[in-house]
Each structure stands twice: as structure tokens, then as C-alpha cells.
Amino acid sequence: MRVLTFLHSFEPGGVERIALRLVHRWRESGIDAPLFLGRTDGAMAEDVGAGLDFVSPRRRWPGIAHWETIWMVATLPRAVRTIRPDILFCAGNTYAFVAVMLKLVLGRDCPPIIAKISNNLDRADASWFYRVFYRIWLRIQGLAIDHFVGMEKPMRAEIVQCVGVSPSRVAIIPDPALSEAQILSLRAPVDDRPRGSGRRFVTIARLAPQKNLALMLRGFARGSAPEDTLTLFGDGPERASLEALAASLGLAGRVDFRGYVANPAGLLGGYDTLLLSSHYEGVPAVILEGLAANIGIVATDCSRSMAALLQQGALGTLVPVGDEAGFAAAIAAARPRLQDARRTLHQARRFTIEHGADHYIRVMRTVLRRHAEARAAASAAPLVTEQALPTL
């Protein structure tokens, strides 16, 4: 079986990081897993992408990073015709437009597409006008894409309801954001602070509007003690404005913008509490990493899966999306190392690459079998109809 994964680039992103890990794992297990990249730049080329061969368009046009989805729609069909995969893996919502366009361009020659739903589909953060058109777009995806993967159990009903497909076209595969080796390394706390120092808060996020990091900074300013610190790992278009906001809130000496780091999850053991303030998410990999590291968690209730991930509040504190006062109160109440280490370990181990990669392959084989059966039935249908016609 040949599984083609398509990504924009090696630019940092949770969807892309997990997709690259899956490609690595599939290849190690003997699966033919080619990788298509619209462009070759990005920090993850020397990180999780290291050692991966890939296919990319030979010609480049200036500024394709600003219209990379259109660039992929223009270049990927040719690669699919050349590589001739058995199945296509759409790694997240970001790539759904590319998947739908592939179906339109390639028609019956398009291999079956499996799409992972990587973000919340309700989008309660958006205006009603946006949500109307977004629901129409989701129904179009349901017509074009063969099978969907949700990352936690509550997502099955969400996909069925929002995309308009039958439950038989939805698989639930716990997002393979971790590995057993990573969990073991994260279990060892790193506590090198002097006695009497404040609490250490941390976040790992792309500095983009979806993450609502302005709310996090304002909540930290209201809820933290003078000796507490906040470290942000990640980069993105909002970095300059967020640094300016931190300064205006009087946090310049207590908030540290570290930028992109190759393995920020490996540093979580040196912190007390992980913060997540997003408008919307699917199953955030950073929450899984926080569970693996057994540190406290304060997060917005930004998807249907968050309550299940944090076991209805037993493994972390959930705050309504956009609730600055609630976020500040949760920060004020956070106490280091109070979570149940056995429960966080058990939960984290549900989301390993060892289990997830194999589960994906089983689902893909099932989809291929159903696809072959459907095509065989469609080919036989005209013969049956012709035989059934009465003789005049």
C-alpha cells in the first residue's frame, strides 16, 4: 500500500509535526509512504523532518508562502499522477481545500482520501454569518472526502453532525502526538529553581490569532503573583504585538518569548503549569505533552474533546473560551504538582505514535477495500440493468 501525505512545507505547526512523525513511523514499519511538500523551507526540516526524502515541485515562484494552498492545488495533481498512491492522507483541516480540489481535478482517477479533523468544527468563536458558510463548506467536504478521522471520542458525533456523513465514514484514532520514549523522558521533573521563587507558567503555541495569547497575557497580569514567570515557546505573526502588550501590562521582566525551539515539549518538566488560551482547537498536542510531563494545566474549553482529555477537570482546569477573568482566577489558584501522576500517565499513553500509526493503516486498508468493492459494484450495475429490461 502506498500512502501519500501532502504538506505545505517544513514550517512549524502541530498538524505538520504529527504528519511527519506518522510518515517516519509508516516507513519504519514497511509502508510505502511518499511525502509531497509544496515548498522546502521551514525549521522542522532539521527537526522532526530530518532524514525524510520528499517530492517537491522543481520550479518555484516568488512569494508562494503567501498563496501556498493555491500553489499546492496547481502542483499536487501532477505529483499524484506520477506517484500513483493507493490512498491520500489529508493531515488536517488546513488541507481540506486541497483535498476537495484534487477530487474535482482528478475525478475518478483520484485515490481515496482520508482526512484528519484537526480543529473544532463548531467554531462558536466566529460570527453566525461565517458559521453558515463554514457549515456549507463542511458539507462539501463530506461529499468529496472518503473517510474522516477524529482524534478523541467526542469528535465522532461532531463530525457526523457538522460534516453530514454516516458514522461508518468516521474513525476515532487518538492523536499520535507522543511516543513511549518521549513520555518516559518527560516524566522526570526538572526543578532547578531556588527556594522561595515563584511559580513557572509555560505555553507552546504558534503566535497567531487562533491561540488568543493576548487573553493569556492579560489573565497572567491579573492572576499571577509578582515572582511568577511565563515562558512562551513558538513564533508567528503576532509576536511583535504580543511583546508590546506584555510591556504595556508591566510584564516585560516576567514574560519570556523564546521563539521557535526544536523540542519544546522536552523542557516542560522545568515548569509548574501549562497554559492554553485558544479560541478553538481539536485535540491540542501541547495538552497531551503537558499530561505526559505531569504538570498542571489551565486551558480554555476550546473543543468538544477538552473535557474528555482532562477527564472532566480531574487532570486540569477548564475555563470558558474568552473568559479573561476566569483565566486569571485559574492562574491565581494554580498550585504545582497536585495532579495524579498515574492518571496523567494513563491518559498520555493513549496518544502514542506506536498505537496511532498502526491504527491509521488498519483504517486505510478498510477504506481501500470498501472503495474497491464500490467500484466493482458500479461497474457491474449497467449489466444488471440491461439484463432486467423487458423484451419488446
What does this entry show, briefly?
The protein has 13 helices and 12 strands. It is of the alpha/beta class and 392 residues long.
Structure description:
It holds the Pfam family Glyco_transf_4. This is Glycosyltransferase. InterPro entries: Glyco_trans_4-like_N. Keywords: Transferase. One of its GO terms (molecular function) is glycosyltransferase activity. It is built from 13 helices and 12 strands. With 392 residues, the protein is of the alpha/beta class. Residues 384-392 have low confidence and may be disordered. The chain starts with a strand and ends with a helix. Helix content is 42%, strand content 13%. The protein has helices at 14-28, 68-83, 96-106, 128-144, 155-163, 180-186, 213-223, 239-248, 285-293, 306-309, 324-333, 341-348, 353-388; strands at 3-7, 35-37, 87-90, 113-116, 147-150, 170-172, 200-204, 229-233, 255-259, 273-276, 296-300, 317-319. Helix 1 (14-28) packs across helix 13, helix 7 crosses helix 11 and helix 9 packs across helix 12. A 6-stranded parallel sheet has the order 2-1-3-4-5-6, with helices on both faces. The protein folds into 2 domains: 3-175 and 353-383, 3-Layer(aba) Sandwich (Rossmann fold); 180-350, Rossmann fold. The radius of gyration is 23 Å and the shape is globular.
